[in-house]
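# step 3/5: fold
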Amino acid sequence: MISDAAEPAHLTEPMPWMKQVEIHMGVHQSPPLTTRQKLRLRIARDNGVEPWDAFMQIVGTNHVQF
């Protein structure tokens, strides 16, 4: 029996690593990634760096103005 409180599948599946970085980029209104940034993000992912840490190190938030 399935509970009425069960979460939809799309809410319980792990989110892909790059999708997490893209969400951070959207929230911080980051410009599109350069080829170099894409390469560095792939290297970071392959080396086990968390998406938020990779975003901060490679993309950063220096361009955000309040």
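# step 4/5: annotate
The mean pLDDT is 85.
# step 5/5: archive (pending)
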